[in-house]
Amino acid sequence: MGEGIALSGVFITYQCVRLDYCLEAAIRSCMDFCDDVYINDGRSKDGTLDILYRLQVEYGKDRVRIIEKDWNHDRAFWADERNYLLDIIPKKNFVLNLGADECIHEDDYNKILAMLPRLENKSALQYLVKHFYGLPSYTISGPNWSRVLTKTWRNDTGIRYYNRPKGCADDPLWPNKTPVHFVRCLSSGATVYHYGHCRHPKAVGTKNVKADALYKNSAEFKDGSLPKIKSYDYKLDLFIKNGGVQPFSGFHSKHMERWVAAHANQSTLWRV
């Protein structure tokens, strides 16, 4: 990258194979334009680490930096484990915080890189978000679906993640606890493709049950285990009928081709 500018991808991972995340594609999309990626894994036991270390062999230890760490599997881990990485990434680096179910399209790499020199110590970069739903051939939008997310800033800004008061997720806040989304943000012109809601329905149902238990401060699943579910239904036809879901007419990232093909014709209902 340009002189004096480094961009680090940031991921937290746990049981991504069982939960059907597009982890490999997400990391590969970062490796195309980021200097390195930092990954905090909660000691996955389902093959997730096999993927990570295979990528590390391919790209090198200086570019794929893996930390295996014991997590506290409660509501706080969404924020705490990202902050753990932000605390060890060099302060002068810019960071790109992505989920294991998110991908950057190759058409947007240069848009992001071009914006980094414009970020000052007290500004951040926002991305449009495209949510895929049920199948990778449909997208969903509406008041309950994020249109814009802040995912990039220089790591010396003091921005850190905090858990939302409601729901199991996190948001970046300035040191004075002001949400980053609301102030001093520039548009990247890029889009984050979010595939979390077109994974296999069994995986989505499993993740949702665990998240609900943690949000209710239940002791259940705090050992890191995943629940067993009997069914999950995307109700895709209903959402299409109500207008919230639309066909996707664009192109997926080159790194998503295999994952998209594997999910193109999946059933959107799963039951035992």
Topology summary:
Blueprint: E1 7-13, H1 23-31, E2 36-41, H2 48-59, E3 64-68, H3 77-88, E4 94-97, E5 102-104, H4 109-115, E6 124-133, E7 135-140, E8 148-154, E9 160-163, E10 170-173, E11 185-197, H5 201-215, E12 231-233, H6 236-242, E13 245-247, H7 257-263, E14 269-271
Parallel strand pairs: 1-2, 1-4, 2-3, 6-11
Antiparallel strand pairs: 4-8, 5-11, 6-7, 6-8, 7-13, 9-10, 12-14
Helix pairs in contact: 1-2
How would you describe the overall organization of this protein?
The chain has helices spanning 23-31, 48-59, 77-88, 109-115, 201-215, 236-242, 257-263; strands spanning 7-13, 36-41, 64-68, 94-97, 102-104, 124-133, 135-140, 148-154, 160-163, 170-173, 185-197, 231-233, 245-247, 269-271. It is α/β, with parallel strands linked by helices and 272 residues long. The chain has a single domain, classed as Alpha-Beta Complex (Spore Coat Polysaccharide Biosynthesis Protein SpsA, Chain A), CATH 3.90.550.10. Strands 1, 2, 3, 4, 5, 6, 7, 8, 11 and 13 form a ten-stranded mixed sheet that branches. It has a two-stranded antiparallel sheet with strand order 9-10. A two-stranded antiparallel sheet has the order 12-14. Helix 1 runs parallel beside helix 2 (48-59). The radius of gyration is 18 Å and the shape is globular. 39% of the residues are buried. The mean pLDDT is 93.
Helix content percent band:
25-40%
**For the record, what is the CATH homologous superfamily label?**
Spore Coat Polysaccharide Biosynthesis Protein SpsA, Chain A
Rg measurement, Å: 18 Å
Query: What's the CATH architecture?
Result: Alpha-Beta Complex
> Would you tell me the structural class of the helices and strands?
alpha/beta
Quickly count the domains. 1
How many helices in DSSP terms? 7
